[in-house]
## 1
Amino acid sequence: MVKKTAADLFYDLAGGALYALGIYTFASSAGFAPGGVSGLALMARHLWGVPIGAVTLLLNIPLILFSLKILGKAFLLRSLRSMLFCTFFLDLVFPLLPPYRGSSFLAALYSGLFTGSALALFYMRGSSSGGIDFLTLSLKTLRPHLSIGTLMLLVDLFILLLGWPVFGNVDAVLYGATATFVTSTVIDKLMYRSGSGKLVLIITSPESSVAEQISADCGRGSTALLARGTYTGRDRQILLCACSRREAYKVKSAAVRADGSAFVMVLETNEVFGEGFRSLS
């Protein structure tokens, strides 16, 4: 329990710092706003000079109240802790540091990079930075047929377009869209590609020694499924072998060495859990 709490605090601390770095140092300094509640807070700062973190926290209050019964207290309390870390860094720490004064396009790229990294850290610990996440997750719970991606896209699009009149130029929309795209890409890479791998499917004869060859060459086990070819009518064996990306070539080579007529498919897997890979817990 102590280790888990310490890990949660560490992730919140790192996530809060990265979040503030992306939002305050890059997005705010370059004069654009990404999507979400943070984008609205950046617009409020541009118009009235109010603190970004405090405004973000205030805007999250109605979303928290709306989501309380749907998402549960535990998730919202963890998210509130993450939001407080973000507010601390946004309003008290990073205003003391020099802002970025370089290219606006580079600012958009780095804003998306650091913000996406922060959100991935929060999500990995079952937390969130709040904002549109609360709304979309709640609507998804109430209306399971709706697409979260579509909902977030529509909300973000509205906020991005709002940046045009607020900042007075269309570049603010383009930079905001760039930062939002990079944020989504970074979240996907960190949360899924870190545990990604390959799944090698091998169709071979039941008498072949492909499984033994894979085990000998790669140290990987495989799972055999019995099948029948619809064209030949002959019994076939399908081997499934989950492996890392760098092992995929060795598995394929082992299969071809054992059975030159084998049919081999190498597929992408977003995440692999279990023995020899990441723990399910």
## 2
Amino acid sequence: MNLDPAIMQKAEVLIEALPYIQRFNRKIIVVKYGGSAMVDENLKRHVIQDVVLLKLVGFKPIIVHGGGKEISQWVHKVGMEPRFVGGLRVTDEPTMEIAEMVLNRVNKSLVQLVNELGVKAVGISGKDGMMLKCDRKYAGGEDIGFVGDIKEVNPKVIYDLLEKDFLPIICPIGFDDNYLSYNINADDAACAIARAVKAEKLAFLTDVEGLYRDFGKKETLISEMEVGEAQEFVDSGALGGGMLPKLQNCVDAIKDGVSRVHILDGRIPHCLLLEIFTNKGIGTAILNSKEEHYYHGK
């Protein structure tokens, strides 16, 4: 019998995914969702499809999302001008009200997308269950308002949702000792949550392909690096822009028990599935020294 090669290729893809499904069955994976993948409706649907598939094959995914671009749009709409210091949004009381409104709106839109695909999602913020307790964060000694620096994570509400087979979708709003609301950098929130739940994987969806030894040379993309090498990369000062704190967050997460961190290009449709379920992957994986290297073929 002559079978269509395309059909056989589909079978090979499923078989390639099998060991990864076996290894990470019932393990927690935190997905930090942001960048262009949150703005483009097609990309947004692909990301949600990926996360739903992870859930249905036995993973325990958690989505932590930002919403910076939408917050800036709404700040403009009310006649205010967004201001940033050291990459952090200056958040006075009116801006904090807008940020909380927008992030909760984004949160429920993601819940709806997941529900439409037949998986039960619950949207919460870091205030729910007193999850994300903050101090005020300063930028180079400057007070930038209601910007939170996470000092404590109480993951009980997350565990409760996972145990009841819900998919938690978390927006990065926390609270301080006086129960005032704080806007938290979504990368920081994802890392803190991943550490608190001892996630097996933490995946960042970004607007870059991954880490490069030389950003001007695409062939220098790093497929895998151990945490010690990643720390050296941070300390060398070779990284610029927002990637430096992101990589430091990755290193800190691994030192605190997360097994593997992925930096992925969220502009690529189904980037999560390609990175997690294929031998070669597409982004950069950072792992602790005890983790097995996967990408021998790269």
## 3
Amino acid sequence: MDNFDKKILNVLHEDSRLTPAQIAPMVGLGEKQVAERIKAMEECEIIAKYTTLFNTEKLSDDIVTALIEVKVTPQMSSGFDAIAKNIYQFDEVKAVYLMSGAYDLCITIEGKNLREVSRFVSEKLSTMRDIISTATHFILKKYKTEGVILDKDDREEKRQFLI
């Protein structure tokens, strides 16, 4: 990976909808070169997925997001990896991270309501072997995610502050 690849990744990180033709002048390469580099990064999974960021506050369907801290007993041969793999197999799980601090893993999950999230914790997560304890935190409001300010009033206030 060279500086051109890094520039392409930075541009795609900001807006993955851009085409190679739009990216090319931004990074100083030709359209064909950009397309080839993107394809190569997709094939070796540097680019793992393209996603869309939703402002869930504006959707009619309520989605409950929870951050769950998990304390585990690491397994002899695989440490935390096998436990993390068992956890990320569940559809509700959106992310799993190995953490430093009081808890070992941090999980984010989504559900249709509080009951669905609490069922996941009590029936699926807490019953797994090697899980010592959990601490569940419900996300009440998202102000900024993935570098994007979600509250229109906050964005306007930030613009005024910058002027």
## 4
Amino acid sequence: MKTIKNKPIPSFKSNQEAEEFVAKADLSEYDLSAFQPMHFEFVEKDASINMRIPSSLLAALKIKAKAKGIPYTRYIRLLIEKDIHFKT
């Protein structure tokens, strides 16, 4: 039996390029295994917190957030939400 390897998703220079690709392409031909669910935030952020943490912990948080492609403050909020099973 022959194994079929799916094509990698190309890189796009703009959202418009990505939208055009999705509108025209047969996505079943592409490797979507690296895709992850996207979390959209619709709830107004009407409260804030201020906490002191070691600079090494903040540096580690920033590295993890950057690897995930999100701001570190959003990453911290996601960690809190995940721990208390809170859905925004």
